[in-house]
Amino acid sequence: MSAPPATRRLAAVLAADVVGYSRLMGEDEAGTQRKMTDWIAQTVRPLITSHNGRIFKLMGDGVLAEFGSVVDAVQCALEWQRLPTPAFAVRIGVNLGDIIVEGDDIFGEGVNIAARLEAQADPGTICISDVVHGQIKNKVDVRMDDLGSLSLKNIADPVRTWQIAPEDDAAPTAAFELPEKPSIAVLPFDNMSTDPEYAFLADGISEDLITALSKVRWFFVIARNSTFTYKGQAVDIKRVGRELGVRYVMEGSVRKAGNRVRVTAQLIEAATGHHVWAERYDREIEDIFDLQDEMTQTIIGAVEPEISAVERAAVSSKAPETLDAWEIFQRGVFHMWSYSQEDHANALKFLTRASELDPNFGPAHAYRAYVHYQGVVMHWSDNFEASLREGMIAARKALAADPRDAVAFFAIGRIHMMQGNQADSIAALENSVKLNPSFAQAYHGLSMSLALDGRYDDATAAGQQAERLSPRDPIMWATFAVQAFTYLLAEDFENALDWAQRTLRHPNAAGYWPSAMMAASLANLGRIEDAQRYARDVLEEVPHLTVSELSGLYRTTKPGALEPYLKGLRIAGIPE
Predict the structure, then answer these.
(1) Sign of the CA dihedral 67, 71, 74, 80?
(2) Considering the entire predicted model, what is its pTM?
(3) N or C, which end of the chain is more exposed by having fewer CB within 10 Å?
């Protein structure tokens, strides 16, 4: 008798995965398996059944369940994550989509998206698709954080994703203690022009304000990469203040009409919602740089009246001679932070063009220098030596235009690191953070150089400071990867694996680094099969990567200090 034909229907799918399952199995395979079996039978299956769901697949480290109601699926996930004494920590993903039913099994993209969402969730949290969010937003009383549109593995189109942390149901508490310094986050200004092409103008004003404020040594300024995660969202200022750990939040808008621009801005005390200062500016478009300087000085005066006129003057930087150079520069910076090989090529193109339009515009040279470095560290460049040489030339041009350019010193430090000059690298990066104490990426770079110099505790501390200055940074995965790298060199392989897992789970993790950290950490812990799987992912990203090439690229102050990392990769299967 033939099997019944497959059918399709709409269903809510819950995917759950045990955090650290491979490590638990490695420590006690029989005990973990027995505990897992009991947990499924006594807790998980009854919980799912009580919410009108059914388990349709059990995997070694997880569960897939189907529900007829999205609300039931999410309520089940919430109750699961709120269990007072959970046997295992889990991540959960929930999706509503089309499924294919074949006997007792189901599959299809609706199931695949749920599984990919689960992989994006932090331990103890739930990630849901936008369609689930739309179904439950007025029915389930829980806070949902917008993670934006994420590119999920083997899913053709980006999926807008929301994360729920069940413990957030309680009265909200600050994620960070407030610094002693006046602390501020500048949110991306809204583009109120009818033409969306003018978004660059709003973004550029926001970025320039962040850069100028960061140069005030007694300000604590959240990095651009974190504040821009709120772009396009209706935000609660009190919540932003808690999430970023700042006293003040600035928001505003830009509207361009013909040759005139109107900028509105307001500075808000986050804890109370009190407006410290608000202003509207109407200017000719050619006066945009004078407007930025005026706004910066006014904000500084409103937040810290005692700042001297000398300090205020120090934050001003030379504007480009043409708006075209500034616009093209902004486009280049946008692509630079997007971290894909295609964006890397576009960033180099735009920043080179901006430098050609205005050879005295230092920031264009400084960021172009960093993009050359970026091509080497991500293995996107065809000629590492030439890229580093071109990057150093660009950085020197930036310093010729402005000897106090923190980004130029940052790029020089990163290039020196790749050239094996760790002492020069650390000196340049320390100078960068001296000039801009709120420069999160400079602390990230310093972390890696200190690791290569054998100063592992200092490296870890610098990485922590990078995370504090940019807690929502879309490329925080890179800082996590450096923390994993540091623990690998220190031969603390358990901590290395923990940070490698955090790197891999980050929704924007890119390139070969996350998989390389996993492969080396697992191999050093004796988990060879798992390590080999991640090594295959490494070689899929960079097919010609070899241990010898990495040995030449990352030179340590102490001979042989890179060996724990290289040894792990060899064992995992990266060719010599």
Answers:
(1) negative
(2) 0.62
(3) N
